[in-house]
Each structure stands twice: as C-alpha cells, then as structure tokens.
Amino acid sequence: FYGSDMGSRWMRQQGYGTAVSSTVPSLLVSVFAQTVNQPFVRSSIMIQKPGEELASRTFPNFSMIRHLASTKGPASLWLGLDAAILKTAPKYMVAVVIKDYMGQ
C-alpha cells in the first residue's frame, strides 16, 4: 500500500478529490506490479506443460523467459497482461478505497 498511500497523499496536496486521490494511485501501482510480474506468470504457466524440457533446468522460469523472448519476441512475455490487469486492478483499488475510508 506504500505507493498508493504516497500517491494519494501527493494528489490530495495538489487539490484532487478523495475519490480520484484514492483510485488513480492504486490503479497505477497495480498496473506497474502486473507489468513487472507478467513475464514470470507467463513462464510459470508455460513450464507446467507436460514434457516441457525447460522445466528440468536449474532456473526453469528464466530459461522459459529467454526461450519465449528469442522464439516469439520480447512482447510475448506480456501476453495476457490485459486480462491480468482487468482481474486484479479493481480488487486492489477497492481494497485501497476501503482502507482510506476506514482511516478517515
């Protein structure tokens, strides 16, 4: 919640309303977190395929990330990011709004 709290505090100091100050920072933090995590989520899913030879490597996630980037291009690492954001961002935003409301 740290990034959302700092962003919310800054937006309130700039004169934004409570609703905008609570939702925009939490949305931005959620999008950033999903974007950073998505390559690891994608590689974790890909190495679960039965018979996947990269799953037996020392660092299977990194091996799969390297394989996906070299065979399908770097953008393939973020396949499914839109669905991940649509799934998690609203939950995080609601949690932050409730936390802010309860803290007032």
TrEMBL record:
It holds the Pfam family Mito_carr. It is found in: Membrane. The keyword Methyltransferase does not apply. InterPro entries: MCP_dom_sf, MCP_transmembrane. It comes from the Eukaryota. It is a multi-pass membrane protein. GO terms for cellular component: membrane. This is ADP,ATP carrier protein. It comes from Zooxanthella nutricula.
